[in-house]
Amino acid sequence: MSADLLALSGQVGAALITKEATVCAAESCTGGLLLSALTDIAGSSAYVQGGLVTYSNEAKMQFLKVRQATLMEQGAVSEATAAEMARGALALFATDYALSVTGIAGPGGGTAEKPVGLTYIGLAGPEGLLRVERRVWGGDRIANKKASVGAALRLLLGALKA
Distances from the Cα of 118 to the Cαs of 3, 15, 29, 58, 63, in angstroms? Predict the structure, then answer.
């Protein structure tokens, strides 16, 4: 992992410990990289409860309770899917916060409406907190995945510091 992501993961971990809060992750296009970043910090077992890589629509529906109608109408790469993934993970792992990431890492799979690099990052948390950010990254597959992880960590850190 890059030094920047490692430092960011450390800041997130420290903030979670300070708040005595827990987190989980529901990932698609990042393939476990977000959870890996969170657990690269020694002592992360104090705040990381777990996570899922739900790459297929079937896995999103089965484990995270993403609605089939959402996937059919909005697509797997959408604001609605990211929101349902985050809410589903929050319920499944019973954590204080849940992050979700769904997108098109590339190099293929993009369309005019949903280009390569399009990513939605969700955050669900206490008191009905729900945020979804839309990003379009311009890198290669690995760069897009790393950028998504960084954005997810920054989204959580912002919520923890609010």
Answer: 24, 28, 10, 21, 23
Q: How far apart are CA 143 and CA 126, in angstroms?
A: 31
Angle at 55 between CA 155 and CA 153, to 5 degrees: 15
Q: Which domain holds residue 51?
A: 3-161
List the CATH number of the domain containing 80. Answer: 3.90.950.20
Burial of 118 (0-12, 13-18, 19+ CB in 10 A): buried
CA 59 distance to own-chain centroid: 15
For tokens 């997130």, the residue is 12
**What is the per-residue pLDDT across 1-60, written as a single tens digit (0 to 9) for each?**
788 999 999 999 999 999 999 999 999 999 999 999 999 999 999 999 999 999 999 999
What's the domain count of the chain? 1
Question: What is the value of pTM for the model shown?
Answer: 0.97
pLDDT in tens, 96-137: 999 999 999 999 998 989 999 999 999 999 999 999 999 999
